[in-house]
Design a protein that fits this description.
Two copies of one chain form a homodimer.
Chain A lengths: L4 H7 L11 H8 L3 H7 L8 H14 L5 H8 L4 E6 L6 H15 L3 E6 L5 H10 L4 E5 L5 H9 L4 E4 L14 E5 L1 H14 L5 E5 L5 H16 L6 E4 L4 H11 L9 E4 L2 H13 L10 E6 L3 H4 L4 E6 L1 H17 L6 E4 L1 E6 L4 E3 L1
Parallel strand pairs in A: 1-2, 1-3, 3-4, 4-5, 5-11, 6-7, 6-8, 8-9, 9-10
Antiparallel strand pairs in A: 10-12, 12-13
The first copy, chain A, binds a DNA duplex (16 and 16 nucleotides) through helix 3 and helix 5.
DNA sequence: TTGAAAGCGATACCAC
DNA sequence: GTGGTATCGCTTTCAA
């Protein structure tokens, strides 16, 4: 079979059956035009079942696969989505990456991944745009809305995931964004800790300038005020493990005015805080100090801790992203912002309960 | 400036400055040939500094970026590497992904990411090959060496990361692989636990068929035998958190023959085991039971636990991967296997010490 | 339904 | 050093 005259004609002198097989080769072997091969691989195209069959048979024999790059060049749709992330040590993000990549794949998209060391996003954008990605999802990265506009002009609309741009007053067209209702989450944390009868409630901030931190803190602060309480002490952890350790040491250093509760800007930091409280200060959580985190890290992350957290709903966030992508790419929709609710839950090693 | 005659000529009626700017447009504005534009962007090319300057100026004015897709079509080098992973909840892998992506980027490559639910790798390969990636790195996925050969034929050599194919006896050309010396790691664990005076040493396996598990267990078993000891009990965790919880419950259910030490096939599983021991059985680690894990998860993962582990050196593994990639792509090297040493370390919340 | 031919946006080879 | 031209592998008119 491999040495038949037809195969020979299709192949010429090539040795490696799979290498560089083009629609041209398939067309020759199937005795149809190259256009026919293209149509055979195009879902809605006008081909007789007969020719399609011939094409597919020939393709199988030759090990042919359509070249997505060539297709991209002409259709101007790469079916690649750039995903920009940093801080993969925060377990929330690998989880998001996993779900997002699966969702996109089921929609026929592929993920071009960029891990950045925070705020070097500008440099990375240039590289991204060269690859003609259909869209850009930015998680855990800040981006000016001016830059987002540039990307959209270059043909790659931007969706901010779990981030918002700073709203400049004169901002007419903010980029698309999917976020949790971080402010409501902050309020939830405030009510929970206040209801627990705590007197000295501390806050450990994430990145000062990030929208997530601003919103969470605002909700927390405002709700405490409403309840006649206030933030007793405050430190900054910058969303990093090490930063949170430092912040915890700082807040709990003076035994006299030691907080009896702390709202931490992310689960990732909350784990660091609980680690310090337990290992260095001999304090028990939640008996001696109540700790509330934020995000949605998997069980493997909190392990032996009892973790009270404001949970972001990853499922709905991914869903919203996919929907938004579709609207942007196939319906010419304008950028928009979607907000997903949070809820407070208590997790222990053996059970998880929503409150 | 934007309305100058030259700009007009270069642009025609386009409104969006950045959209669809090609080397053609730049050439016209710079009053040079399109070839010149191409050369201006090609590092070693033969261009006078004068023309290069003209080109770059024009490019900046138009917001031009070379189209990587078009370049790929003709050079047959996409500068994209497909990375296939599963199980991102095991913190070892996000860490690998982060380091790998950074290393590749500094070499001018980009990562096309595929998250698979284990062993559906066959389906994903078809998609990968359509994108003409320069190579494929497979981590946490099994792959037959036949498939690896197919990929190589299709122009995308495969590197297995932290995995080996089953060596069939008749296998002439195994695919490239970067692994730790898992067998030596197993031996280290055996010596450590034996030296600790433990009598009833258990083993919790990862995926039964995986090379990592086979090698780790073989080293562990053989070294114990050499020391006049043996595996007292064994269960399978399949490298998953839930699997390891079950395995732990199973091994520690009967109070009479309860193990006093356990070697767990991965840190990820070890965390699950310690969680069960502590929360469900009220046992302390390492006072009541010694636990040894394997891999290299970041501090945020083990938090409050004292984790004794056989550490895989991610840095050298990434380095080996990058080197191998270079050899494969630019020096026509044959597939080869590299093995990196492991070491036993003890990690506590406040310190990390190598033994 | 089908095939021929014109691109998509770059690189490579060729004379000059 | 420079510009013209063929080409990469495909999709897309446009006639037939």
């Amino acid at each position: 079979m491999a040495g038949s005259p037809v195969m020979k004609e299709a192949f010429g002198n090539f040795k490696n059956v799979n290498k560089n097989v083009t629609s041209q080769h398939v067309a020759r072997l199937a005795q149809v035009s190259q256009s026919a091969v293209s149509r055979a691989y195009t879902p809605g195209a006008s081909v007789s079942t007969h020719t399609r069959q011939r094409v597919m048979d020939a393709a199988r024999q030759l090990g042919y696969r359509p070249n997505a790059i060539a297709r991209t060049l002409i259709t101007k749709k790469s079916r690649m989505i750039a995903v920009v992330m940093s801080q993969l040590d925060n377990q929330f993000y690998p989880l998001v990456l996993e779900k997002l990549s699966q969702r996109l794949r089921s929609d026929g998209y592929h993920v071009l991944l960029f891990i950045t060391s925070r705020d070097e996003s500008d440099g990375v954008l240039a590289e991204i745009l060269q690859y003609q990605v259909d869209a850009i999802v930015m998680a855990s990265t800040v981006l000016s809305s001016a830059l987002a506009r540039d990307c959209a002009r270059a043909g790659s609309p931007v969706i901010l995931f779990n981030r918002m741009t700073k709203r400049a007053a004169n901002e007419d067209h903010p980029p698309s964004a999917v976020t949790s209702d971080n402010e409501a989450g902050g309020r939830l944390a405030a009510r929970h800790l206040h209801a627990g009868g705590h007197q000295r409630i501390a806050y450990i901030a994430g990145l000062e300038e990030s929208s997530t931190n601003l919103d969470r803190e605002r909700g927390f602060r405002d709700e405490l005020a409403l309840l006649g309480s206030r933030i007793h002490a405050r430190a900054v952890g910058n969303y990093s493990y090490e930063g949170a350790q430092l912040a915890a040491r700082q807040l709990f250093s003076s035994a006299s005015q030691r907080p009896d509760a702390v709202f931490v800007g992310s689960d990732h930091m909350a784990l660091a805080v609980m680690d310090v409280l337990r290992s260095e200060l001999g304090l028990r959580v939640p008996q001696d100090v109540s700790v509330v985190g934020f995000d949605n890290v998997p069980q493997a992350a909190w392990g032996a801790y009892q973790l009270t957290t404001i949970e972001q709903s990853i499922g709905p966030m991914i869903e919203a992203t996919a929907t938004m992508l579709h609207a942007l790419l196939h319906e010419g929709a304008q950028p928009s912002a979607v907000t997903v609710p949070c809820r407070l839950i208590v997790r222990t090693s053996s059970k998880t309960s929503a409150l």
